[in-house]
From TrEMBL:
Pfam families, sorted: Ribonuc_L-PSP (PF01042)
Organism annotation: Oceanihabitans sediminis
Family: Belongs to the RutC family.
Top-level taxon in the UniProt lineage: Bacteria
Official protein name in the record: RidA family protein
InterPro entries xrefs: RidA, RutC-like_sf, YjgF/YER057c/UK114
GO MF, one example: deaminase activity
Amino acid sequence: MKKIITTKNAPAPIGPYNQAVLAGNTLYTSGQIALHPETGELVLADIKTETKQVMENLKAVLAAADMTFENVIKTSIFISDMNNFSQINEVYGEYFEDSSAPARETVEVANLPKFVNVEISCIAIK
């Protein structure tokens, strides 16, 4: 059985999807971009600020499912320019311990929703 996870502390979906779905003990989040949850405005000052907003949005979705980044087992990172990888990775790394960091892939794509620079989703377990 699946349970829909929603929170006002992360951006509302902009299409026919939910912020996350909990299936058993496994949480599947939708990709998060740097939309500020209160204002709905994009946070694009620089790539580090943008990535931090993405991670804070993911943090809020995880919290709504009573989880933290410690529960994350897999992330998917989509970026529009691989030249931003090191800066994205630096911010991303602040949310995980190296010894227990999740598996992940990072893929450069031609475009992302609202023409942002980074989108991240994750899978977490209780």
